[in-house]
Amino acid sequence: MTAVVREGLRQEVLEANLAIPQVGLATLTWGNVSGVDREAGVFVIKPSGVPYEALTIDDLVTVRLSDGAVVEGDLRPSTDTETHRCLYLAFPSVGGVTHTHSTRAVAFAQARRDIPVLGTTHADTFNGPVPVTRDLTEEECAKDYEYNTGHVIVDLLDGDDQRAVEVPAALVAGHGPFTWGATARKSLEHAIICEAVADIALHTMSLSPTTPPPRHLLERHYTRKHGPDAYYGNPTTPATR
Amino acid sequence: MTAVVREGLRQEVLEANLAIPQVGLATLTWGNVSGVDREAGVFVIKPSGVPYEALTIDDLVTVRLSDGAVVEGDLRPSTDTETHRCLYLAFPSVGGVTHTHSTRAVAFAQARRDIPVLGTTHADTFNGPVPVTRDLTEEECAKDYEYNTGHVIVDLLDGDDQRAVEVPAALVAGHGPFTWGATARKSLEHAIICEAVADIALHTMSLSPTTPPPRHLLERHYTRKHGPDAYYGNPTTPATR
Amino acid sequence: MTAVVREGLRQEVLEANLAIPQVGLATLTWGNVSGVDREAGVFVIKPSGVPYEALTIDDLVTVRLSDGAVVEGDLRPSTDTETHRCLYLAFPSVGGVTHTHSTRAVAFAQARRDIPVLGTTHADTFNGPVPVTRDLTEEECAKDYEYNTGHVIVDLLDGDDQRAVEVPAALVAGHGPFTWGATARKSLEHAIICEAVADIALHTMSLSPTTPPPRHLLERHYTRKHGPDAYYGNPTTPATR
Amino acid sequence: MTAVVREGLRQEVLEANLAIPQVGLATLTWGNVSGVDREAGVFVIKPSGVPYEALTIDDLVTVRLSDGAVVEGDLRPSTDTETHRCLYLAFPSVGGVTHTHSTRAVAFAQARRDIPVLGTTHADTFNGPVPVTRDLTEEECAKDYEYNTGHVIVDLLDGDDQRAVEVPAALVAGHGPFTWGATARKSLEHAIICEAVADIALHTMSLSPTTPPPRHLLERHYTRKHGPDAYYGNPTTPATR
């Protein structure tokens, strides 16, 4: 039965979901991670409303990319499933998606402000501000609300996959952060970093009307970890400073 | 002896009380949760001043709804018992009550400001601001102080049970949050969420003179989790995103 | 050898010291608790600079009240020992003293502002603001510095034991909080509460130019836990909400 | 093989690195500690991008002081290795270096503000503000970036070893804190203290336009822990209050 997705994906999605409370990004059952198998045309996601401490690999739900139908699993998938699906369809490079209500990133989303680039901690991962979407319209809320939540992110990035690679995170206005990456685990890492840079930005902004650091410093940090000239990390270790 | 209340209630009240320090809402022995058995006409509550690490099921105190008399238990009940009783008497839908001194919610109570609705994290649970009561009068403090602490909450909601269902939390001015729900466990969840949204609101307000998100977004989030069209959660899981 | 102090005192002082990092009030080896045996004319205190994880009951140092001489123990006592001694000599009601560098209380000490009474969380324990001392003079720093650190607290309270009972905490300007109580354990509890109310006050003050709650509310909270009409707690439990 | 460095150094460097997440200064794999063996002309440092939970003593990398060549270890050393090397070459008193992205210190670095001396918690360790460097130039970013990151610190202190002893920490503008000390362990302690004083300073500054405490108080605290008249600590314990 579970052969429907490539080996290891369900385990990776389970572990990434279980990491959400461990890294302090969760309140109650909030938050969810998914991972995609593009060959099989499906993604695996957390079920809706299951407490993390009770979550097992058998609770995960497999959803078809093309139409959102549940193809495996006894539980209802996360209510945010359609948002994940929209992001997978729009951005071919995305292998995993994470959504949390982590508090500092949500504060920026609620204030409808981008998380600005204020230092190398940000530039190490995000090659630009973490942008905030426009508000959803009344029509977008009334019908296909969750899919449209993904749609305003796609809109924000002009559907440009390269932009999704360079800044793998966005804040949905009045809601909170969605992050993504090449794998479920990477999307979770970006959620952790998004919250960290939001937290640091809040404190930086309380200290001064901030001037961003020089662009050459930021570029140096981004390119030493990403692209052809990257020299961060070791072959057998995840590329995360 | 313990047959006076329905099976499982004492255990649920114990677990909800023990969860207060686990979820980081307690300082020392502060905080208390109760659960009601309306058929038996009693509620079960934490004893006064017992440290959480020493609390056992036998320490819980059973109190009569009609007059506040202790009907079971060797210890004195929480000093806040009469506040709980007042809320049970006023709002028939309430099955459990939680009181904490969680720091961000207390900050709003001390500033005598409602926790405003600034995003979907709030709207998922509270269908409106978490309101703050008026100050108690000198007379209300002098006599039946704890009962009157409940009374100002009842006043604030015009004694309307439906309002108590839609926003299951209030801040007593200069004091702190009281939350409630269909069960003791739900009242605790609302205390956790009340603190989380207070924390996020504080940071949002530091970022911008806040404009609330459009009403249609907030309504969508409330109704996807509450009422006839709710589609959040799974049959066997608690309905908490 | 250890018979010099009353039974249980060394154990109580050890446990109160070990609790400092457990309750999150310590950085590295910072902080110290002592307890006095007035009959024996000595007090027991943490040695200087010993990491909490290595601290054992044999490391504790016994110091004579009258002149500060070490009467038992192989290690040098805390550098703050003379401050503790000064407080014991000035205030007969004090049975234990705690000093920490807990961050929010230190922030008030550094800003040279009292922690104001903004709600019942404060009034439950402190019957008035937690006051900040004047700066020490150059002479007071040059000679008997640590004793003089206690002296500015005594000065602040006009040496009035009753004031020390009603507000068992003070902030030394530019330095940090000292708290005390009937026992070592109570002095530690007051340190925990001092930090909690400082934290809540910081957030309250960020929300509004604060008006204190009505005096009758604050008095009610203080008197329900202290004095002849107190009705908080249970005979066998510590009197701390 | 490991005989290349003095006994105990590798273990000390391992433990100091593993302590970074334990004391709450790390996000993901961020942060690194090194320790030097000046006789052998090498230093030992964390490898690049290895998660703390997977880090073993065999992963540590030994680097030659004179030219930065790896002389032992299978993994690539931390990308920040050249910054450590620059500091070792410039300041003969430095025995260990720590770099973290701890959030409050990074906020000051991003705001390009010194962490001011606002109280004795700061003065106990740092005999002056923790200074922030100038921005790196475009040329300094383009070539030998990491070495130049050390260079702007050396510049800031005019290459004066005594200044490096008195304030064993600096903030690289737009980046974050580097701290050092006589040993790897001491450099880590200074990182912990740097973050603590940054946190306290942020809260102090939110309370008042701060006036520093009198110089005689600050000097007293520094000299009671440092220099010929120090009287803090015990012979067998680390000298850290």
TrEMBL record, chains A, B, C, D:
InterPro entries: Aldolase_class_II_sugar_metab, Aldolase_II/adducin_N, Aldolase_II/adducin_N_sf. It catalyses: L-ribulose 5-phosphate = D-xylulose 5-phosphate. Gene3D superfamilies: Class II aldolase/adducin N-terminal domain (3.40.225.10). Its cofactor is Zn(2+). The keyword Amino-acid biosynthesis does not apply. Residues 11-202 form the Class II aldolase/adducin N-terminal domain. Keywords: Isomerase, Metal-binding, Zinc. Its EC number is 5.1.3.4. GO terms for molecular function: L-ribulose-phosphate 4-epimerase activity. It comes from the Bacteria. It is an enzyme of class 5 (isomerase). The keyword Isomerase applies. Pfam families: Aldolase_II. Belongs to the aldolase class II family. AraD/FucA subfamily. This is L-ribulose-5-phosphate 4-epimerase. It comes from Streptomyces africanus.
